[in-house]
């Protein structure tokens, strides 16, 4: 049974300082999920293309993507 990566977050929040002991199963599932993505060539290419697109846009505008995505203040 595959666990949702959010299960690790939930377990840590619910367990507090005992998360190291109580959340081993959820941590292992999260590691497996991340490793699968890291080793997926299609995912790598997708991330690379997204990065290159953002870098190109930054070089054109000088504005980081996070700031471009924020709503501009409206004058009233």
Automatic annotation (TrEMBL):
Keyword Cell cycle annotated: no
Keywords attached to this entry: Disulfide bond, Mitochondrion
Signal peptide coordinates: none
Localization: Mitochondrion
One cellular component term from this protein's GO annotations in UniProt: mitochondrion
Pfam family of the protein (one): Cmc1
Similarity field: Belongs to the CMC family.
Alphabetical list of PANTHER family matching this protein: COX ASSEMBLY MITOCHONDRIAL PROTEIN (PTHR22977), COX ASSEMBLY MITOCHONDRIAL PROTEIN HOMOLOG (PTHR22977:SF5)
Protein name per the record: COX assembly mitochondrial protein
Lineage, highest ranks first: Eukaryota, Metazoa, Chordata, Craniata, Vertebrata
Gene: CMC1
């Amino acid at each position: 049974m595959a666990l949702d990566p959010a299960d690790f977050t939930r377990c840590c929040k619910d367990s507090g300082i005992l998360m190291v002991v109580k959340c081993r199963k959820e941590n292992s599932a999260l590691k497996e999920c991340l490793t699968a993505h890291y080793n997926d060539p299609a995912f790598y290419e997708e991330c690379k293309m997204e990065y290159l697109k953002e870098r190109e846009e930054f070089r054109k505008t000088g504005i980081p993507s996070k700031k471009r995505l924020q709503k501009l203040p409206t004058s009233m």
